[in-house]
């Protein structure tokens, strides 16, 4: 757990100035997976893992970027930022600086020191956390004030256009807009968020398979391309269809036999997952946890069998949770191919749940997992 005064002191030792500090959280997604880039619905919540960015201005128009976890001290000239990614971790910050400039924000030269405790490659959105915290930090030195939803969109653009991962809006949005004790039901087309209270006696138990995923590699972008192929197909029958969000379950069924099998499976997941997500928001808000459990189970199976983004370890982790006392629903969370499962667990059962799941998982895979008992936290904040 980071101590903010000590972090500020370490910054001062490096840069001889007293920083402002911004904190942006990682997230879990309770349901609504691979729907955001299909203009659909998602239901994430921020968790207690965060990235912290400390910043001070410098007069020479340079951007100095350092991390407490990753090597290197990177130096760039704000008047000549690299036009494309460098391949180093600092790309997340550079990408944000670039899109802010393109948006017309005057950036000041700055020293940045980054400290992150969001597990990397675990599907908990470490990248959105660093982007959002860096955006607020860099904006704080200039004149431009932007609304948080716009900051989320700019951070997403940075990841799409600069880093090269064609992610949707979910992670950056929740890192900006999350509210403690709540999940957000987000309509990814209108960006209209609705707060969904999470019952106070539930913990979000996050189980890390320790199998790393890397979204920038092909599979994520391939899924996106397959969805786009589905949209092109359905738009031939109904030109008002702009995204899989617009495809009704009925239309999908009518074409079950004419679409290539893979494309049909992908479309099927997205169309039904959107419905499940809206149903889940209602179930959670009404405290109908039996329904919630059912929906999360269906979501996982669909990601495993239709969207095909799960993996053996995630499936084992999901199965390890079934039948445990206090378990109210679980599934893989995030992009997939490794990373974490998210579980709703009664508070009084949470530590025993963690121990049991870790043991079952270890027995089946030989891997020692990491299990975190989380609550839903606020989005990005200025700390000093
Ligand atoms: C990653 C992306 C999100 C979303 C999920 C899958 O986390 O960053 O935009 O697409 O995968 O739901």
Written overview of the protein:
The protein has 384 residues and is an alpha+beta fold. Helix content is 40%, strand content 22%. The protein is built from eleven helices and 13 strands. The chain has a six-stranded mixed β-sheet with strand order 5-4-6-3-1-13, sandwiched between helices. It has a four-stranded antiparallel β-sheet with strand order 10-11-9-12. A hairpin with a 6-residue loop joins β10 and β11. It is globular, with a radius of gyration of 21 Å. The chain starts with a helix and ends with a strand. The relative contact order is 0.17. The model has no long low-confidence stretch (mean pLDDT 96). The site of alpha-D-galactopyranose has 12 residues, from α5.
Shape: globular
- Helix content percent band: 40-55%
Q: What is the end-to-end distance?
A: 17 Å
Mean pLDDT: 96
- Please report the number of helical segments: 11
**Distinct ligands, ions and cofactors found in the model:** alpha-D-galactopyranose
Structural class: alpha+beta
Report the uncertain regions. none
Largest sheet properties: 6 strands, mixed
What Rg, in angstroms, do the CA atoms define?
Answer: 21 Å
Report the strand count: 13
Binned strand content: 15-25%
Strand order of the largest sheet: 5-4-6-3-1-13
Order of helices and strands: HEEEEEHEHHHEEEHHHHHEEHEE
């Amino acid at each position: 757990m980071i101590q903010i005064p000590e972090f500020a002191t370490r910054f001062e030792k490096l840069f001889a100035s007293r920083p402002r500090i911004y904190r942006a959280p990682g997230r879990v997604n309770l349901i609504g997976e691979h729907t955001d880039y299909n203009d659909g619905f998602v239901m994430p919540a921020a968790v207690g893992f965060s990235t912290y960015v400390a910043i001070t201005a410098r007069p020479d128009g340079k951007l100095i970027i350092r991390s407490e976890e990753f090597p290197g001290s990177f130096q760039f000239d704000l008047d000549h930022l690299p036009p494309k990614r460098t391949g180093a971790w600092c790309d997340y910050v550079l990408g944000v600086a670039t899109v802010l400039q393109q948006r017309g924000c005057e950036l000041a030269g700055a020293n940045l020191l980054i400290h992150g405790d969001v597990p990397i490659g675990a599907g908990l959105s470490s990248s959105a956390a660093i982007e959002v915290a860096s955006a607020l930090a860099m904006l704080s030195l200039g004149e431009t004030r932007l609304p948080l939803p716009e900051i989320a969109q700019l951070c997403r653009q940075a990841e799409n256009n600069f880093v090269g991962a064609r992610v949707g809006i979910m992670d950056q949005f929740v890192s900006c807009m999350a509210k403690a004790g709540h999940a957000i039901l987000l309509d990814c087309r209108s960006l209209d968020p609705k707060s969904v209270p999470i019952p106070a006696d539930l913990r979000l138990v996050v189980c890390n398979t320790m199998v790393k995923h890397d979204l920038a590699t092909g599979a994520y972008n391939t899924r996106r391309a397959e969805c786009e192929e589905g949209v092109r197909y359905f738009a031939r029958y109904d030109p008002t269809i702009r995204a899989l969000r617009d495809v009704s379950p009925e239309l999908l069924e009518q074409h079950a036999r004419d679409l290539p099998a893979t494309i049909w499976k992908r479309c099927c997941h997205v169309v039904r997952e959107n419905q499940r997500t809206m149903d889940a928001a209602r179930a959670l808000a009404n405290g109908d946890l039996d329904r919630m459990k059912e929906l999360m189970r269906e979501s996982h199976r669909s990601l495993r069998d239709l969207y095909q983004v799960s993996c053996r370890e995630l499936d084992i982790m999901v199965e390890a949770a079934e039948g445990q006392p206090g378990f109210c629903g679980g599934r893989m969370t995030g992009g997939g191919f490794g990373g974490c499962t998210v579980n709703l667990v009664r508070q009084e059962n949470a530590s025993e749940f963690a121990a049991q799941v870790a043991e079952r998982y270890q027995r089946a895979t030989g891997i020692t997992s990491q299990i975190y008992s989380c609550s839903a936290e606020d989005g990005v904040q200025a700390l000093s």
